[in-house]
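INFO batch 0412 | record 1 of 1 | parsing
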Amino acid sequence: MTILNETHGNLFNRVLENTDSIIFHGCNNMGLMGSGFALEFRDTYRKTFLKYEKYCREEGRDTHGKFNMDILGTNVFKQEKGNLLICGITQSGVRTKQNIRPAKLEYIKACIDQMEAINQLDAPFNVIKNRVIHCPRIGCGLGGLQWKDARSLFEASCLDFNIYYLF
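INFO prediction complete | emitting tokens
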């Protein structure tokens, strides 16, 4: 049964107090983290950002150097500062006046599905089992989605989440 806790406060302050946490963060497919939660993530977990950036540069472009959609709905995993960090590629591009909803529910669902598949594996490959996943409201804010829509994906999951929000 899924446990979904919604907590007011700063995820980084709470998670950095102890190690062995999992942080799941929604990212774009361009390898950019320039504002909001992403900027704080990039500055706090530099090695993970560099791995995500390289993944987008090498796997997320076609032979002509243009961004393709193949990596949408995939996750980049990295262990850093005692925590497991998961960068979920949940949005196509960044938010602009023309692209007001770069995040898509289907990409968020695919990232959660991938984590659920890992959760079914035996040790040592199952790095998620019996652990709470900390994340912001993925896809909301600069992603352009409404939390009530994205929330249902987390509720339908077999994983446990602590969702952090700032108001």
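INFO post-check: The first strand starts at residue 4 and ends at 8.
INFO record closed
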